[in-house]
Amino acid sequence: xxxxxxxxxxxxxxxxxxxxxxxxxxxxxxxxxxxxxxxxxxxxxxxxxxxxxxxxxxxxxxxxxxxxxxxxxxxxxxxxxxxxxxxxxxxxxxxxxxxxxxxxxxxxxxxxxxxxxxxxxxxxxxxxxxxxxxxxxxxxxxxxxxxxxxxxxxxxxxxxxxxxxxxxxxxxxxxxxxxxxxxxxxxxxxxxxxxxxxxxxxxxxxxxxxxxxxxxxxxxxxxxxxxxxxxxxxxxxxxxxxxxxxxxxxxxxxxxxxxxxxxxxxxxxxxxxxxxxxxxxxxxxxxxxxxxxxxxxxxxxxxxxxxxxxxxxxxxxxxxxxxxxxxxxxxxxxxxxxxxxxxxxxxxxxxxxxxxxxxxxxxxxxxxxxxxxxxxxxxxxxxxxxxxxxxxxxxxxxxxxxxxxxxxxxxxxxxxxxxx
Length: 420
Ligand code: NIG
Ligand code: FE
Fold this sequence. Notes:
By secondary structure, the protein is an alpha/beta fold. It has 15 helices and 16 strands.
């Protein structure tokens, strides 16, 4: 007997499609009030009006979840996180508050290297346990898919340990989110290769890529001045592509280096951060259909200018939003904060923000055919809000509007039932 569920009395709000929505199409959402969603074995079978529900002929064979008129959205997709890491870096945050910069801390051997030291000394089991704590916070905020990177090992055994931790999380029987895995061995130059960037690139290509290529879907790189500059990045991205991996870049985060242009040249699925993207970078990304994944909590935490989201949308880019949860530049996995910052400081409309956190987030992970919208055939990854109107999302500033999170048709989080 199949497992059947009905989400009843829903106000469905969703983007539509199996690929990223670009430019002004991001603001087109489909809305259906007094609606139902019929789910069978974790897949959306159909949606319709409550007045037509009898035509399904279910005769009490489906579990009934009453949304009581509240908004039902596709589950949120946090398409850029560094979910697995050893240690924490609260001291660096306090140094930055006193005027230190992110890059100067990194150049002194702190920053990413500090988390690398801690991660090398943490067991896989402890990494998994810590990540589970963050996943529990994420599902409370409506996240049903999370992208997670390695990149705090920077040697083959520790990178593999991180990827194994992610595989354990992903294959756990009580898994509450889908996890998309990214290899980020090119996150920094490890201290043992200081001043020998090209040799570290050789190690990534000859030793790491063969070991990780079947354990991660994406290859990501921190393309940045004094980290992996354009030539090294191009060489690594080409090798990763040849190894069959899909590409992502941390691009134009701290300075304008041409990372967005490189992402377009290499056919990357997404380029992320983009605080300092050039006009040419916007044009090229729109042309090549590279998703622009913007991470407003990072700009906020680093006191940097926000990425020019409006310019990108007007220029025809597909914009996704994500949190960048990590122990350094952005120790926050807050979806509510991401929504409010995007609306208040990046001048995105709430409709664009919803598309950016759902369908376009899925496209940034190359899974828009599976999830990211409420449509027949897609995974039943859904969020029921506490409110009947999407305008509450940015208006309830930095606060959680999620009442219920549904992952593959199962309730994985619910706060005190739904108030009448
Ligand atoms: O997305 N900039 C590079 N990587 C991360 C930060 C990692 C860290 O500081 O630990 C980012 O901002
Ligand atoms: Fe990042």
